[in-house]
Write a structure and sequence with these properties.
The complex is a heterodimer of chains A (about 350) and B (about 425). With about 350 residues, chain A is α/β, with parallel strands linked by helices. Chain A is built from 16 helices and 13 strands. In chain A, the strands form three sheets. In chain A, strands 1, 2, 3, 4, 8, 9, 10, 11 and 13 form a nine-stranded mixed beta sheet that branches. A two-stranded parallel ribbon of chain A has the order 5-12. In chain A, strands 6-7 form a two-stranded antiparallel ribbon. With about 425 residues, chain B is mainly α. The chains are: A alpha/beta (about 350), B mainly alpha (about 425). Strand 2 of chain A pairs antiparallel with strand 4 of chain B.
């Protein structure tokens, strides 16, 4: 054998031995907090994780962006160092997910509400400002809309915004939005679409008589090209809006905040999407953001309690905290106090109280 | 009829014009195709360098900071691990701009300096605690918005509410600039730091180390396995329906989309073998699966290229089959095998899709120090930065791409040099 071959074999064996010995070590303990979940909460959670990691003797938490649903699934897979300690979520946990958690031994979950996020419909700065109502949004984007006769649904016939509402510009309906796996999409559908859908009296009545039909009508977005699924990358949507002044984009308030010289948010029900309007609850399309913690992991995983304290501190989520600089809309003082006390005492979630 | 009397020479002459035209046309199309390719490449590189080159420079701000024990520990107990280093930066800024008053204005003023300033002071004091109480003049990183303004990426002539810096902030920046307290320097942090949510502190070292650990695992596994498989299939395996089947399958595997290997890695290495998520070890194993077919195919081609006369001569002199392979065929085929390995590695370096499934798309600040520490890889870092709302990440994304392309270029160059230097022609 030549020297080269010997060296290669020696190096491979050494690397492998090293790799597997360190791999085995990792199984015995984990000295960092492991977070998964929503891509909407990710920009906030990462800032907290970084500040916590640099300002304490603990390692910086690891944060994976898996989406709200994917995060809750990983979170509920079990208790122990192989499973995440925390999952971020841009919606509240569902009963089915709590059941799944319980089935895998994750019994006590602490819910932490961290603040609000507005969802905006924005267009290029060069384009005219528009004022939409939630009913306009529903009529423009739903797959089926109410027809002439009460109780009748027709395939969405509207081509331009002016068809929907004569006060709106005579431009083709073109909306770029997130895919169905996104929490932003869920929230947009629930808050904006359903909000507009309810304004039709007979559909509202349907909610009591036939709930699944009601959901299908209110939550289904048209698929004829007027709504374009633009992927999870909000920067890309902003670029596309700049290039196409006729199009609208749907994304979180933090992106509007960072790109104020490129895009502007449409008024919804007469309210402009601003920091204050969302904080006061005036802007209708806003949702709370959460994360969920396994009580059994606190005090077992080093740094988990510290991370919780950092996240719920005034300097992070307060009115003037560093998270508000990143576009998170803080909760009112009183609510913050309540949640912080809840986290301190680790009071687990009970679905009945929701 | 003239055509009937035409001899061969006339026929050729008659068709010559048409044939030449055809040739010219084809050449023209060929040149056009090449030009289009070069044009795309040129546009890609120009935009990349135009966007990314500014990320290698970073704005720093000079501050006179009094390392006062009173500010560090207002209650008198000085513990450097938990002292208020932000307070030092703030009081220094207040001293620099005594006219700024009011909570709101002061907050705007504080935002000009990166939070990295406080970390810098902490590191300084932890190293030399005797500095407490002294006055120090330090160059600290400015916030990314100041950096963007200095680089011209924020247009100061826009209306105030359309830009991330207020009129007052721009005024302060201007006065700092005139006092010589702002300076653009080489962005060392980009190469020495791990990831960060503050663009001015974010670096690629964590991602580079993650990629290095992964490639070590990959090369350590895929080279020996790939070469052994290639030698066996080429030199020892009997020609049968089975070996044909294996050959077809290896060729097919080379074309399987990489995300599939990620799913396989998740099911086998994480869920079944219970290796840690996000670890370069698992990433390396997945990339091994990905590169194996490439290496096997390249190695087999290299072995095939060794002339049979060499094997026959060795056999004729009494060498065994194994001796023939290891003394003669393999040394001659090695350059080709190594070239294939390097090309396989450079493909592995650029992969991000399979890493998505095994938890390597994550925010990880600490630079990984072993094969089982959580880590990301360079392409993943590029993806994460491209999706960040802060605009200063745009130029850093391009800078990270430039670095990745640099690595790829070096690896492919190594493959070319290896081939030119060591390859033998018969």
């Amino acid at each position: 054998m030549s020297f080269l071959q010997k060296a290669t074999i020696l190096a491979s064996t050494a690397t492998l031995a090293l790799a597997f010995s360190t791999g085995a070590q990792a199984q015995t303990g984990r000295d960092y907090v492991y977070v998964v979940g929503s891509s909407t909460v990710y920009p906030f959670a990462t800032v907290v994780a970084e500040r916590f990691g640099r300002g304490s003797e603990f390692k910086t938490p690891k944060i994976e962006s898996t989406g709200s649903g994917g995060g809750l699934k990983l979170f509920c897979d079990g208790i122990g160092i192989d499973y995440p300690d925390i999952t971020n979520s841009s919606r509240a946990i569902k009963q089915s997910e709590v059941d799944n958690c319980a089935a895998n031994g994750v019994a006590e979950i602490v819910e932490v509400k961290i603040g609000y996020d507005g969802i905006v419909m924005a267009n290029a700065l060069a384009a005219p400002a528009v004022e939409l109502s939630r009913a306009d949004i529903f009529m423009a984007l739903a797959k089926e809309v109410p027809g002439e006769v009460e109780g009748e649904l027709i395939e969405n016939p509207y081509v331009t915004w002016a068809d929907v509402n004569p006060a709106l510009p005579d431009a083709k309906i073109e909306v770029l939005g997130p895919p169905p796996t996104s929490g932003t999409r869920d929230a947009f559908v629930e808050l904006a679409m359903e909000g507009g859908c309810k304004s039709v009296p007979w559909i509202k009545a349907l909610k009591k008589s036939d709930k699944s039909r009601y959901k299908a009508v209110c939550h289904t977005i048209r698929e004829d090209g007027a709504f374009v699924e633009a992927g999870e990358n909000d920067n890309l949507i902003v670029q596309k809006l700049e290039a196409n002044p006729k199009a609208f984009g749907i994304f979180g308030f933090s992106f509007l905040d960072q790109n104020a010289e490129k895009v502007k948010g449409a008024l919804v029900d007469g309210v402009e999407p601003t920091f204050d309007a969302i904080a006061d609850g005036d802007y209708p399309v806003s949702r709370p953001l959460y994360f969920y913690v396994k009580k059994a992991h606190v005090d077992v995983i080093p740094g988990l309690r510290g991370y919780l304290r950092e996240f719920t501190s005034e300097r992070a989520w307060g009115e003037e905290g560093y998270l508000s600089d990143r576009g998170l809309i803080p909760m009112p003082d009183e609510e913050r106090g309540e949640v912080a006390a809840n986290v301190r005492d680790l009071i687990p979630l009970t679905m009945a109280s929701q | 009829m003239p055509t009937a009397k035409m001899n061969t020479r006339d026929k050729v002459a008659a068709g010559l014009g048409r044939r030449r035209r055809k040739e010219y046309l084809f050449r023209f199309i060929g040149i056009l195709a090449t030009l289009v390719g070069v044009l795309f490449l040129g546009v890609f590189f120009t935009s990349l360098i135009a966007n990314g080159s500014s990320a290698f420079q970073q704005t720093f701000m000079q501050l006179d900071i009094e390392l006062s024990a009173d500010v560090l520990a207002p209650d008198g107990e000085l513990d450097l691990a938990y002292a208020d280093f932000d307070g030092l930066v703030r009081s220094s800024l207040r001293a620099e701009f005594p006219e700024v008053s009011g909570r709101r204005d002061r907050r705007e003023l504080y935002r000009l300096v990166s939070v990295g300033a406080a970390y810098q002071i902490r590191d300084l004091l932890l190293e030399d605690p005797s500095l407490v109480g002294t006055m120090q003049t330090l160059w600290v990183p400015a916030s990314s918005n100041v950096d963007m303004l200095m680089k011209g990426n924020i247009d100061a002539s826009l209306e105030e509410k359309l830009r991330p810096l207020s009129d007052k902030q721009i005024g302060w920046i201007e006065s700092l600039r005139q006092a010589g307290r702002l300076d653009s320097r080489f962005n060392v942090a980009l190469f020495t730091n791990g990831d960060s949510r503050e663009p001015e502190l974010a670096g690629i070292r964590g991602a580079v180390m993650g990629s290095v650990y992964m490639l070590l695992v990959t090369v350590a596994l895929s080279f020996p396995i790939g070469v052994a498989a290639a030698i066996y299939l080429e030199e020892f395996a009997p020609r049968s329906r089975w070996s044909d089947l294996i050959e077809v399958n290896i060729n097919n595997l080379a074309a399987v989309p990489s995300i599939v290997f990620g799913l396989l890695g998740l099911a086998v290495f994480i869920n079944w073998v219970a290796l840690p998520r996000s670890a370069p070890l698992v990433g390396g194993l997945v990339l091994t699966l990905l590169t194996l077919p490439v290496i096997i195919i390249a190695s087999r081609a290299a072995i095939k290229a060794v002339p049979p006369s060499i094997r026959e001569a060795a056999l004729g002199l009494g060498a065994s089959q194994t001796q023939v392979v290891f003394h003669h065929v393999m040394p001659l085929a090695l350059p080709g095998m190594l070239t294939g390995t390097i090309i396989g590695m450079s493909r592995a370096l650029g992969e991000s899709a399979p890493l998505l499934m095994i938890g390597m798309v994550a925010f990880i600040v600490d630079v990984p120090g072993s094969f089982s520490d959580p880590a990301t890889a360079l392409p993943v870092q590029i993806y994460l930065w491209a999706d960040s709302p802060e605009r200063a990440f745009a130029e850093r994304t391009s800078a990270a791409i430039i670095v990745l392309l640099g690595f790829l270029l070096v690896m492919n160059l190594a493959a070319v040099i290896l081939r030119k230097r060591m390859e033998r022609k018969w």
